Amino acid sequence: MSNSKIWLSSPHMGGGEIKYVNKAFDTNWIAPLGPNVQGFEKDLEKYLSENVHIGALSSGTAALHLGLILLGVKSGDEVICQSMTFSASANPILYQGAVPVFVDSELDTWNICPVALEKAILDRIRKGKKPKAIIAVHLYGMPYKIDEIHAIADKYEIAILEDSAEALGSHYKNKKCGTFGQIAALSFNGNKIITTSGGGAIVAQNEDLKNKAIFLSTQARDNAPHYQHSEIGFNYRMSNICAGIGRGQMEVLDAHIKLRRDMHDFYAQYFADIDGITILKEPSQDYYSNHWLSAIVIDPGKIGKNRENLRLAFELENIESRPLWKPMHLQPVFEKYPYYGEKVSELLFQNGLCLPSGSNLMEEDRLRIKNVLNTFFQK
Ligand SMILES: *Cc1c(COP(=O)(O)O)cnc(C)c1O
């Protein structure tokens, strides 16, 4: 058996990408913008439906940053953010000179906890400032508790910036992730469910917001023959080459989601009879996860070994696995900011591990993964 590296999640081309990229070369649309960008945006709008308006950008981080600007977040404002997430969810708050307020996760979806969220809002209001926005994340493709979280946001009239970077193709009550927030962000980074080598998109509920995002992403150029600016702009637009890759990836998105979900089923079956392993799974039929990454929590008391032991066992066999996202309130760069919650995200981080989940994993890869698990769990 070959010992080549098994990655957590690596790019998986469908084959159609190159025709769009070649077309860009053939027509000399190498510059940013061009027909692939509009085509990719239309493909995404059609896929998400719900009448959303999409602007393709250079990254998911750029989408989150512009999202905060569109929601009016300014220097000194407070923004609530799910603590357990990738740093790119929280960094744009600081780009705006705003203050992050971190909130714990709950155990069903591992996403932002409704109870801790409401506590945080009430306490911030009591301290004199109502938060300007809430950044909620669908971690590993699992929708957050949409009904509960949006009911709270509505009650206090706070906008939600939906970080759907990991959740393209997931849905809740048959409505796609990325269509719930006032603004949402998608990512097409190399490790995501589809990739444009690097890229992202902003999803807006109306055309004006989308146009404003595109205006800001192309250096905020006023309508004039010379370069005229009355606002600060950014260079955040997606290139026509990258969008070509994206168009090809859209052709295989649903097939790749099925393969990711198959990987999840493989693990779910494997761990079904092991007491002490919890796998992240849909809490009810309302939830549909793209299972971007399959992830487990190990109870070291029951298993007798911890998640680091398993990670190292994989590493010895050249298989990548990775601890869950380290909560932002524990990160040196963010630890001085307020945090509301118990120790849910801390315990998930301590005991959680993401397993190889790519849509390109073959039977042979599963066999190697299974061999490591069999030795580890003495099965
Ligand atoms: C990947 C990711 C982002 C950032 O997307 P980029 O395209 O890499 O900038 C933001 N939030 C979460 C949760 C992510 O996983």
Largest sheet: 8 strands, mixed
Which CATH architecture of the largest domain? 3-Layer(aba) Sandwich
Low-confidence stretches: none
Q: Could you give the order of the helices and strands?
A: HHEHEHEHEHEEEEEHHHEEEHHEEHEH
Share in β-strands: 15-25%
What small molecules does the structure contain?
A: pyridoxal-5'-phosphate
Output the CATH class name of the largest domain: Alpha Beta
Query: What is the fold-level CATH name, i.e. the topology of the largest domain?
Result: Aspartate Aminotransferase, domain 2
Supply the CATH superfamily name of the largest domain.
Type I PLP-dependent aspartate aminotransferase-like (Major domain)
Overall mean confidence score, pLDDT:
96
User: So what's the overall shape?
Assistant: globular
Family: Belongs to the DegT/DnrJ/EryC1 family.
Keywords: Aminotransferase, Pyridoxal phosphate, Transferase
GO molecular function: transaminase activity
Protein name: DegT/DnrJ/EryC1/StrS family aminotransferase
